[in-house]
Amino acid sequence: MSSAAVAILLSVLLGALAVFQLLLIVGVPIGRFAWGGQHNVLPTRLRVGSAVSILLYGVFALIGLERAAVIDVLPGAGFAFAAMFVLTGYFTLGILLNTASRSRPERLVMVPTSLVLAVLSLILAVG
Prior knowledge:
The chain is mainly alpha-helical and 127 residues long. The chain is built from four helices and no strands.
């Protein structure tokens, strides 16, 4: 699989997560899959966290696309290279945090999602 295909797959998965976070923000009762699963409908503070997550997912997608040379919008040739290693660590930490969740639905959905994100990020980082 080409690095462009990996970056696009990463971006699509991040886009799906952004839609999920948007659904949480507007009050769809799927909170058992996120933020520890303690609230079916998120309180305001966690909705703000979901909004921040959407912004971060966009930045993460840009970094992945930049690393794969699908786009050329970020400054410095080495930035995307280094950032992909940081994202690999971030998504690996996500595996651990989601594994520790008390919410079984969150563990069942978000652990594999974080694993796929970590693997795709690692492929881009070393590729």
